[in-house]
């Protein structure tokens, strides 16, 4: 029997626009913010998930301000195109994930 893929949360790397070019080794392994290249602390970083770029596995992380800003922009873009988010108060899974990230970004580090 084939195991069903978990209906898990949408991976953050697929929700946000995360740069793939000019990424340093430190950014690729999540030591520096993937957007602003600031060094990250354990508490101030948001895990963006795993991705593979040119066959290399990366674990990008973002600082809170960058993640929050990027998530908020993505949320606005998404809400325009998503009937569920536009018409239902609750919104869809993707909308939820983006809202959560936006809030995380705003929370004090
Ligand atoms: Zn940053
Ligand atoms: Zn939606």
Give a brief outline of the structure:
This protein has helices at 12-15, 25-28, 64-81, 83-87, 93-106; strands spanning 45-47, 51-53, 56-58, 61-63.
Molecular structure report:
The protein is an alpha+beta fold and 109 residues long. The protein has one domain (12-106). 41% of the residues lie in helices and 11% in strands. It is built from 5 helices and 4 strands, in the order H-H-E-E-E-E-H-H-H. A two-stranded antiparallel sheet has the order 1-4. Helix 3 (64-81) packs antiparallel against helix 5 (93-106). The longest helix has 18 residues, at 64-81. The protein is globular. Bound molecules: zinc ion (2 copies). The site of one zinc ion (ZN) has 7 residues, from strand 4.
Keywords:
109 residues, disordered N terminus, single chain, alpha+beta, 5 helices, globular, binds zinc ion, two-stranded antiparallel sheet
* Spatial strand order of the main sheet: 1-4
The computed structural class is alpha+beta
**Total DSSP E strands:** 4
Q: Which ligands does the model contain, each kind named once? A: zinc ion
Radius of gyration: 15 Å
Assembly state here? single chain
- Provide the succession of SSEs: HHEEEEHHH
Summarize the topology:
Blueprint: H1 12-15, H2 25-28, E1 45-47, E2 51-53, E3 56-58, E4 61-63, H3 64-81, H4 83-87, H5 93-106
Antiparallel strand pairs: 1-4, 2-3
Bound molecules: zinc ion (2 copies).
């Amino acid at each position: 029997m084939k195991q069903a893929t978990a209906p898990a949360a949408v991976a953050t790397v697929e929700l946000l626009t995360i740069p793939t070019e000019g990424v340093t080794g430190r950014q690729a392994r999540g030591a520096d913010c993937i957007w602003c290249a600031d060094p990250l602390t354990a508490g101030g970083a948001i895990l963006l998930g795993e991705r593979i770029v040119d066959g290399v596995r990366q674990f990008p992380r973002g600082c809170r301000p960058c993640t929050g800003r990027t998530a908020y922009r993505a949320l606005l873009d998404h809400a325009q195109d998503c009937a569920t988010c536009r018409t239902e108060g609750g919104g869809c899974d993707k909308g939820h994930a983006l809202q959560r990230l936006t809030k995380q970004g705003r929370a004090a580090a």
